[in-house]
Amino acid sequence: MSQSAEHQVAGPFPGEGAPVDARTRLVLAAVEAFAAKGFHGTTTRDIAAAAGMSPAAVYVHHRSKEELLYLISRHGHESTLRLVRAAAASKEDPAERLVAVVRAFVVHHAHGHTSARIVNYELSALSPEHQRDIADLRRRIHTEIHELVQAGVDAGVFHTSNPRMTTLALLSLQIDLARWYREEGEWSPEDIAEHYCELALRMVGAR
């Protein structure tokens, strides 16, 4: 398992540390394998090999390949929700709050772009129950951003005729970053965050 795998699962994964336990090693290995082959193209043997373990070890620690995808997805969404809430709470002015949230979101997704792509584009492979859990987390993230935008409108700081649509546009812009961002690319996460903050303020009509 490469050193980058731990970095790609943004935020500390439950059980993650030194040494990383077998259960977490398999989750981190699944990030590598799903990123390389996609969920449907990955076998439990691939995951075990990436973790340096036997194929049987997967079923000792996890019920299925789908459970691994769910754990990656849940962790990614929970860590995003935490950082959005923390960033929003760090400021009082609506414009400053929006900038703080966008900056944190963008840097978080850029540093964890591999796992973010898995989280956002493999959702259909989850079981119905797990899809509902992830959908609930996504709604909570959406609500945090929407309430921030609406508060700015109510305060007369933001000027947008449709806060709900603006919220969707803001989230789409930030989430899609994981699709095209590359570590060897021209822009650093901080460069992108700075520009996205400018775009976000324009989108909400900040004055």
TrEMBL record:
PROSITE patterns reported for this sequence: HTH_TETR_2 (PS50977)
Name this protein carries in UniProt: AcrR family transcriptional regulator
DNA-binding positions: 43-62
GO molecular function, one term: DNA-binding transcription factor activity
Lineage: Bacteria, Bacillati, Actinomycetota, Actinomycetes, Streptosporangiales
Residue stretches making up the HTH tetR-type domain: 20-80
Gene3D superfamilies named in the record: Tetracycline Repressor, domain 2
Pfam families xrefs: TetR_C_24, TetR_N
Alphabetical keyword list: DNA-binding
